[in-house]
Amino acid sequence: MQDSFDLTTIIFLALAVFVIWKLRSVLGTRTGHERTPAEIMRRSEPPQAPPPANDTNVVRMPGRGQDDAPGAEPVADPDRWKGFAEPGSPLAANLDAILATDRTFDLREFREGAKAAYEMIVTAFAQGDKRVLKDLLSKDVFDGFVGAITEREKRGDRIETTFVSIDKSDIADAQVRGKVAQITLHFVSKLITATYDKAGTVIDGAPDKVVDVTDIWTFSRDLNSRDPNWKLIATESGH
């Protein structure tokens, strides 16, 4: 009887050891450095972008942050404007002047912001969205756009515009006047655009044709301002 009891006990002990070993192999063991569920959630969540300073329609462009020390000279770099301006050219000198006043200025980021603003402005004008336009245009340009939209609405016309691509966005000029910087870009884009009268008849453009559009736009910003956004101050059609 005693031998039977001892044999049964040994069998159950062996089974218990086997079960414990399997649990450890599946679940692992704690090392004291495991992350809590809250830590796992925090680390797996994408970083949250800071809220825009003003309106959500404003296109953010590079500008001076609050902690940047003004007046420091940028480190000389002859290739700083490579792909944008030739070393020693007037354009390069003017870009240097902008950077000397605003050390956070990044021309590549500026161009990307300008391209986004270009598409947003063209689309907002077609839709008659004055609220979006007000955030992106200087007062004079805004008044001109609003006047054109008002006349269009009086006639009962409407525009449908679809952006296909922006094929070119070259820096054509840069100027610093006092503390105000101005940068001009030469845009070449592909659009599908058509204007309809109140009867629904196409009176300009074509709803099924892609056209090349060339624009020369100038953006401006007060370099002393904490507002990093540039506004459109002049437009003209290119050739």
Q: Can you give a write-up of this model?
A:
The protein is α+β, with helices and mostly antiparallel strands and 239 residues long. The chain folds into 2 domains: 1-29; 90-237, Nuclear Transport Factor 2, Chain: A. It is built from 6 helices and 5 strands; from the N terminus they run H-H-H-H-H-H-E-E-E-E-E. Helix 5 (130-136) packs antiparallel against helix 6.
In the CATH hierarchy, the architecture of the largest domain is Roll
Poorly predicted regions = 17-58, 64-72
Structural class: alpha+beta
Summarize the amount of helix as a percent range: 25-40%
User: How far do the termini sit from each other?
Assistant: 108 Å
Question: How is the main sheet built?
Answer: 5 strands, antiparallel
CATH top level class name of the largest domain? Alpha Beta
Radius of gyration (CA) equals 31 Å
Number of separate domains: 2
A few lines on this structure:
The protein has 239 residues and is α+β, with helices and mostly antiparallel strands. The protein is 38% helix and 25% strand.
SSE topology:
Blueprint: H1 2-27, H2 37-44, H3 90-101, H4 107-127, H5 130-136, H6 139-155, E1 158-177, E2 180-196, E3 202-205, E4 211-222, E5 231-237
Looking at this protein, list some descriptive labels.
Nuclear Transport Factor 2, Chain: A, alpha+beta, five-stranded antiparallel sheet, 239 residues, 2 domains, 6 helices
